[in-house]
Design brief:
single chain, about 230 residues, mainly alpha, two-stranded antiparallel ribbon, 2 strands, TPR-like_helical_dom_sf
Length: about 230
C-alpha cells in the first residue's frame, strides 16, 4: 500500500525525534515527491475544480500542530540572537490526498509544512556536524516555505505559526554566521506578524512569548561583527 503524504510526514517526524536525521530527510523528501505526484494526477484529471478559496473545507482541517511545547530557555545559547524553534509540524488532516488540491491555500499550507520540516532536518544536521552545506540547504528550503506561506490567504490561523517558525529559524542560521542585514530582515518580519491582529487572535500565549522573546532581550538590533581569525 502506497504511503500518503500524511503518513510520510509523520514517519519523517518520528525519525527526526529519534535523531535519525538522514532517514528523516529522505522521508520528508518522499512526502514532497508524493505531493507532486498527487498534484500532477489531479491537474491532469480535472483542472476546473480547484479554487483559491478554502471556505468549503475549512471545517475539515485541523491546525498543523508542533511536536512539543515552545520554550525560550536557550535563547542565549552560543550568543545567538535567536532560539532555534526545534519543533516539526504534524498534519492532523482529515482530508484525502486528492482533496488537498481542491484548495490552492491548502496545497500551499501542506507544501509549506513539508518544506519547513525538511529544512529543520538539514538545520539540525548542520548544527550537529558543522557542515555549511546542510545549513545552506536549510536556508534555501526555509525561503521556499516562506514564499509559499505568503500565498496562504484563507488559512491564516493554520499558517501563522509555521511562518513565524520559518523566519525564526532563518534568523538563527543568519545570526550564527553574523549576517546582520538578514538577521534584521527576519526580526522585522517576525515583529510585523506579532503586531498583527491575527497573532493576538490565533497564537497561543506560549508561542507568542517564544517569538517575542528576542525583542525583550534585544530591544535594538545589534551590528554583528565577525570574530577575529
Amino acid at each position: 500500500m502506497t504511503s500518503t503524504v500524511f503518513d510520510l510526514n509523520n514517519q519523517g517526524i518520528h525519525y527526526l525525534q529519534q535523531g535519525s536525521l538522514g532517514e528523516a530527510a529522505n522521508t520528508f523528501q518522499s512526502a514532497l515527491m508524493r505531493l507532486r505526484e498527487v498534484l500532477y494526477r489531479t491537474i491532469k484529471a480535472d483542472t476546473t475544480q480547484r479554487s483559491s478559496s478554502s471556505s468549503s473545507i475549512d471545517n475539515r482541517i485541523a491546525i498543523p500542530t508542533r511536536t512539543g511545547p515552545s520554550s525560550p530557555s536557550n535563547v542565549l545559547q552560543n550568543e545567538n540572537q535567536f532560539s532555534l524553534f526545534d519543533q516539526a509540524f504534524i498534519l492532523p488532516c482529515r482530508l484525502s490526498e486528492s482533496e488537498i488540491l481542491l484548495s490552492v491555500d491548502l496545497e500551499n499550507l501542506v507544501s509549506c509544512c513539508l518544506l519547513y520540516n525538511l529544512a529543520l532536518t538539514y538545520h539540525k544536521r548542520g548544527l550537529a556536524t558543522g557542515k555549511s552545506k546542510d545549513l545552506q540547504q536549510a536556508v534555501s528550503l526555509y525561503q521556499k516555505a516562506a514564499t509559499l506561506g505568503d500565498f496562504v490567504e484563507e488559512l491564516a490561523e493554520q499558517s501563522l505559526l509555521q511562518i513565524l517558525a520559518v523566519f525564526n529559524n532563518l534568523g538563527h542560521i543568519y545570526s550564527e554566521h553574523f549576517e546582520s542585514a538578514q538577521v534584521s530582515g527576519c526580526m522585522d518580519s517576525i515583529l510585523m506578524i506579532l503586531e498583527s491582529s491575527e497573532s493576538y487572535e490565533h497564537l497561543q500565549e506560549e508561542d507568542y512569548n517564544f517569538f517575542s522573546w528576542h525583542f525583550f532581550l534585544y530591544p535594538e538590533i545589534p551590528v554583528w561583527l565577525a570574530p577575529a581569525a
